[in-house]
Amino acid sequence: MTDRLESGWASGASARGRVVEGDNLELLRSLPDGCIDLVYADPPFNTGRRRASARLRTTRSADGDRTGFGGRRYRTVMGETRGFDDRFDDYAGFLEPRISEIRRVLAPHGSLYLHLDFREAHATKLLLDHIFGPEAFLNEIVWAYDYGGRPKDRWPAKHDTILVYVREPGRHFFDAEAVERIPYMAPGLVSAEKVARGKLPTDVWWHTIVPTAGNERTGYPAQKPLGILRRIVSASSAPGAWVLDPFAGSGTTGVACLELGRRFLLVDESPAAIEVMRTRLPEEHGIAFERLNPSTLGPREGSDRNRRPG
């Protein structure tokens, strides 16, 4: 795949990955045209409230506030709280310049996976059609899970939407054989051979959220499961490809890329997110961390700023 990051903005960068603290729009504008093979973007969902997550731990205590196995008493200790503001007066205005730049930096075979929830998926699809063109739409993936509160006045909202658009229709990279297969829901309707092999996932992905007490959990709010990112990276990038995550959060995209032999560029302006990524992506693994310096950046000469292919 493309090596333009090696000779362009990221000259001298780690061969495995780079994590940048700063404004993703500033960084996107500095990248060369067509230098990225895959983009996974998980922007704030515009829920209208602050998103936060606190880590809890328990210690044995005779006068503790909770009872555990065998009647033992434990005391709950509140740990660090991490969060971010998830309120936008003009969400489309926030996304539009970033999506335009993402389209520009994608290679001809590249794809964008844009992760949204029900509040903004419909309007954002119209925006993507405008920037990429409706013919560049590839899939609407529904990630379904079963966790959290259940209101009594509506169907509980238990899914996210991932919209997939390609840079040039018909030229996108997709490797179905690289995707981990899943069991058939009705194994009695297919042959034993097919049952043993499993099936390719459809555009509805049943996958648990990050377990609240699991080893994968970092405590960063809105952390996405590693299994979701493994599937995306496996299918839509080749080994050695460059994967960009402009809203990197807890760094799950980078973890998936390290496991699968892809290179990555992660961006987030939250110091708390960078702190989490330093833990998950140690520098001894060949990862470079830096802070964005806007004074040294500028748009690439000759960049294609048109929203639609000419």
Write a brief structural summary.
The protein is α/β, with parallel strands linked by helices and 310 residues long. It contains eight helices and twelve strands. The protein folds into two domains: 4-48 and 87-296, Vaccinia Virus protein VP39 (Rossmann fold); 53-86, no CATH class.
Residues in helices, as a percent range: 10-25%
Question: What CATH architecture of the largest domain would you give?
Answer: 3-Layer(aba) Sandwich
- What is the CATH fold-level name of the largest domain? Rossmann fold
Q: State the domain count.
A: 2
Radius of gyration: 21 Å
Output the CATH homologous superfamily of the largest domain.
Vaccinia Virus protein VP39
Helix count from the secondary structure assignment: 8
Oligomeric description of these chains: single chain
Shape: globular
Q: How many extended strands?
A: 12
Looking across the biggest beta sheet, what order are the strands in? 9-7-8-6-2-10-11-1-12
- N-to-C span: 23 Å
**Helix/strand/pairing category:** alpha/beta
What portion of residues belong to β-strands?
25-35%
Largest sheet: 9 strands, mixed
Low-confidence stretches: 8-14, 46-56, 80-84, 305-310
| Helix and strand element order | HEHEEEEHEHEEHEHEHEHE
CATH level-1 class of the largest domain = Alpha Beta
Whole-number mean pLDDT: 84
